[in-house]
Give the backbone structure.
Amino acid sequence: QVQLAESGGGLVQAGGSLRLSCAASGRTMSTYAMGWFRQAPGKEREFVAAISWNAGETYYADFVKGRFTASRDNAKNTVYLQMNSLKSEDTAVYYCAATSGWATGVEADFDSWGPGTQVTVSS
């Protein structure tokens, strides 16, 4: 399995931006589809975005379309989530995940998970 570590979380005002990074180690990330999920306090973890192994396809939850962008740099073994126009309801712990299968929004399809990074949006 690949090991994942997120970074880039923090405190930001509503309307601001953050870019999350997820660095992979142990194995090359280039053969994995990657996903971003989030979990807000008291809520279940939910799908945010997914990107295919070559970045040819990306998928987004409806509530982030037009605001968040997933990208990846396989040479750096890193995937990114650019988050713009942040809202207080985006406050959550954000996780990246890897799957050797297709990029989907299904949590159970992902094999490896990072520990998460906290994003807090103040209104």
Observations:
- The radius of gyration is 13 Å.
